[in-house]
UniProtKB/TrEMBL annotation:
The entry's keywords: 2Fe-2S, Iron, Iron-sulfur, Metal-binding, Oxidoreductase, Transit peptide
InterPro entries given in the database record: Rieske_2Fe-2S (IPR017941), Rieske_2Fe-2S_sf (IPR036922), Ring_hydroxy_dOase_asu_C_dom (IPR015879), Rng_hydr_dOase-A (IPR001663)
Organism: Tagetes erecta (African marigold)
EC number(s) stated in the UniProt entry for this protein: 1.14.15.7
Similarity comment text for this entry: Belongs to the choline monooxygenase family.
Function: Catalyzes the first step of the osmoprotectant glycine betaine synthesis.
GO molecular function, one term: 2 iron, 2 sulfur cluster binding
GO cellular component assignments: chloroplast stroma
Protein's recorded name: Choline monooxygenase, chloroplastic
Domain Rieske positions: 92-199
Top EC class for this record: oxidoreductase
Pfam families according to UniProt: Rieske, Ring_hydroxyl_A
Location of this chain's protein in the cell: Plastid, Chloroplast stroma
Cofactor entry: [2Fe-2S] cluster; Fe cation
């Protein structure tokens, strides 16, 4: 949304853009455009071109002078492929919540890029995760979510236990050099932090050791781990429900919209704005996390958080997970890229158990939330169309409010150059 708010003034001054972007080479915008063309016409130079494209954003330029990343970061299919490998397939990624695998023999499936996964709790209560791919001829094994004591492949019936072992390979009489132990499901690293389930897609793993909450918290959240857990982002609330939205925009457009420090709220969410003390909006940046605070007074330090408690806290956990903790509520937003101009956002709602049965309160709150989501979706889809326009290459940051967005872009750059 912030980007949309910025489009009009930038476009009005488009012919003066070189003046605005004085710290940069005059041909900066043209370079971005020609790079875009070369990516299409000269595949043999993809790697070097991509690195050049990544460097079109310079994280070392202070936010007051910085340009936003070029629009090709938001439109190129190949750039998205780069993001999967350098951003999403590194480190811990949120994929769901404990509620989805609360009981023994329950499971849920998902897809991130070209990785199909299944998370399950086996009959002994051990949480496990695997690539959701049959070892016979690669059919997907499980679909959606549910309960069962095994995974039976819908293609030829090979059957796997929830611990991943191959229990039955049908009609393989005569096969040679085949050991069932070599054909179990391929495991993934899985961990829990608070109410959230995390996967790590980095390497194949031969065993699934448990992960300590503190270790995972430090790896995933850095120093923000303690801030979040002591400010109400924990397992104390009851799970309520899930809402999913498919949005015609690049996944980063949704993230950017979240990270504009409330910039768009008075313009785009008038009803929401009336209930917020927008002057109190503030942002703290941690390693891989940024936390925006509002409504509970200005939050500028850990001491402020300690003093003010968890009244309203909006945490962005790089690259694609948001945790919103306000009053008796918590909701999480998981942004899943589906293509260069399409993403799915999963909202999970949690509520203080004492209010869960207050149907009128719950219905009104969810209705209000839905209205905000619809307003955001309109903005995000509008921004995506603007990003695809030849009139736009880069924007600027509003330095006082868009710090978290700039931090997000710096983290992306840091991952993408590796
Ligand atoms: S692909 Fe699964 S049993 Fe054949």
């Amino acid at each position: 949304m912030a980007m949309m708010m910025m489009m009009n003034p930038i476009n009005l001054q488009f012919s003066n853009l070189n003046k605005i972007t004085n710290p940069y080479p005059n041909s900066r915008i043209q370079q971005a455009r020609s790079l875009n063309s070369s990516l299409i016409t000269n595949s043999s130079h993809h790697n070097s071109s991509f690195q050049s494209l990544v460097h079109e954003f310079n994280p070392n330029i202070p936010i007051q002078q910085a340009l936003t990343p070029p629009s090709s970061w938001y439109t190129s299919p190949d750039f998205l492929s780069l993001e999967f490998h350098h951003v999403f397939f590194k480190g811990w990624q949120a994929v769901g919540c404990m509620e989805q695998v609360q009981e023994a023999n329950s499971f849920f499936t998902g897809r991130l890029g070209n990785i199909e996964y299944v998370v399950c709790r086996d009959e002994n209560g051990v949480l496990r995760a695997f690539h959701n791919v049959c070892r016979h001829h690669a059919s997907l094994l499980a679909f959606g979510s549910g309960k069962g004591t095994c995974f039976t492949c819908p293609y030829h019936g090979w059957t796997y236990g929830l611990n991943g072992s191959l229990l039955k390979a049908t009609r393989i009489t005569g096969i040679k050099n085949f050991n069932v132990k070599d054909f179990g499901l391929v495991p993934l690293r899985v961990a829990i932090w608070g109410p959230f389930i995390l996967l790590n897609f980095e390497t194949k793993v031969s065993s699934q050791k448990g992960y300590d909450d503190d270790d995972v918290g430090t790896e995933w959240l850095g120093s923000a781990s303690k801030i979040l857990s002591t400010n109400g982002v924990d397992t104390s609330l009851s799970y309520l429900c899930r809402r999913e939205y498919t949005i015609e925009c690049n996944w980063k457009v949704f993230c950017d919209n979240y990270l504009d420090g409330g910039y768009h709220v008075p313009f785009a969410h008038k009803d929401l704005a009336s209930g917020l003390k927008l002057d109190s909006y503030s942002t703290i940046i941690y390693e891989n996390v940024s936390i925006q605070g509002c409504d509970g007074g200005e939050v500028k330090s850990q001491e402020d958080f300690d003093r003010l408690g968890s009244k309203s806290l909006y945490a962005f956990i790089y690259p694609n997970f948001m945790v919103n903790r306000y009053g008796p509520w918590m909701d999480t937003n998981l942004v899943i890229p589906l293509g260069p101009r399409k993403c799915k956002v999963i909202f999970d709602y949690f509520l203080d158990a004492s209010l869960k049965d207050d149907e009128a309160f719950v219905a009104k709150s969810l209705e209000d939330s839905e209205k905000v989501q619809m307003e955001d979706i309109m903005l995000c889809e509008s921004v995506q169309r603007g990003l695809e326009s030849p009139a736009y290459d880069c924007g600027r940051y509003a330095p006082m409010v868009e710090k978290a967005m700039h931090h997000f872009h710096c983290l992306l750059h840091q991952n993408l150059i590796k």
